[in-house]
Amino acid sequence: MAKNENNKGLTTFSWVGVNARGKRMEGELNGPNIAIVKAQLRKQGITPSKVKKKAQPLFGMNGDKPIKPKDMAVFTRQLATMLLAGVSLIQALDMIANGSENKSLQKLITKIADEVKAGDPLSKALRANPKYFDELYCDLVESGEQSGALDRIFDRVALYKEKAEALKSKIKKAMFYPVAVLTIAFIVTVILLIFVVPQFEQVFAGFGAELPAFTQFVIGISEFMQAYWWIVFGIIGAGFMLFKRAHQSSKQVRDNTDKAILKLPVVGLILNKAAVARYARTLSTTFAAGVPLVDALDSAAGASGNAVYRDAILDIKNEVSSGNQMNFAMKNSGIFPDMVVQMVAIGEESGSLDEMLGKVASIYESEVDDAVDGLSSLLEPLIMAVLGVLVGGLIVAMYLPIFQLGKIVGG
């Protein structure tokens, strides 16, 4: 049996077969594809009955990596590029699978390729993996199969996935920055209360005079934190877990959270722009792929990422279903900027709605980029205020008795 080596460009296959004496054997063998592995086994006098790919172990553990949305965006772009270049679907899937370094993604693509080779449409093979391919993705692929333009549809889907992932990354960056700053401010404050303030308290004990009210207040908080810090952190942790559970199980909690987030200073503005960009990009992609407008609006509602916009888009869908123009329905919703409504109206009148929505998406994606890049400067006043009140307030409270003592001595 061949030695299992981790050679670059080769895939590990597990095999089962019988030798010349009819004895059942099994093992692993490296090779570029199944056909060559079978040929190598036959040269060794083994008749293979089953050969399949197997992920390489890493440091004694399973080396499979989870498949991330970014991986799916890259896969979609690779497939679109190959199809546009004239490569057949099955050949393209095999090439992408063999070239993937992510073993989990390699298994997924191989599974899809096997189903397509067996005669199933690609859309059906994708629907069998809803964890990685949502309804919108599968519907677009199915429309491409029916229209005979799968290569162009995949190009649109790839662009959609790339833009969606870029937008998601920007939103995470926008949310992370203020949360990180406030968390650090809280940790610094707790450290000062537990470790620094008690040192001043020992100094103040020898003054023999009544301390200022503000200093007494801070010392009281410090003593409470020293005695019950575990209760404070326990309440914070329990509150976070309860909110997380409620957010997962209750639609009302999710909806109210989405409404509150949109009203946050600075970050709320970015999330509103991102929601408009996502709405326009989804509609542009689906409508251009030949999906009816009502169905496209349904997909846009599901991809909105926020309950406020989801409900508004569903209302727009109902109005469009009743015969109203989409720009009137968008205006009635009250959440879309006038410029977006006007551009949609122009697109409806000129018959180029998909192109106009694509321009809207590009404009708002660019605005989100600019807003996130300038987020630090926009939040600097708020950060300085928070840090000034928390840390500066503690310092003032500790030095007030010293200033008063100086006045008494000087008098």
TrEMBL record:
GO (cellular component) term, any one: plasma membrane
Tell me how this protein sits in the membrane: Multi-pass membrane protein
| Record keywords | Cell inner membrane, Cell membrane, Membrane, Transmembrane, Transmembrane helix, Transport
Q: Which residues cross the membrane?
A: 175-197, 227-243, 382-402
Q: Where is the Type II secretion system protein GspF domain?
A: 75-198, 280-401
User: Does Membrane count among this protein's keywords?
Assistant: yes
Give the location in the cell: Cell inner membrane
Instruction: Please give the coiled-coil regions recorded for this protein.
Output: none
Q: Which GO terms describe its biological process?
A: protein secretion by the type II secretion system
- Write out the similarity annotation: Belongs to the GSP F family.
UniProt-recorded name of the protein:
Type II secretion system protein F
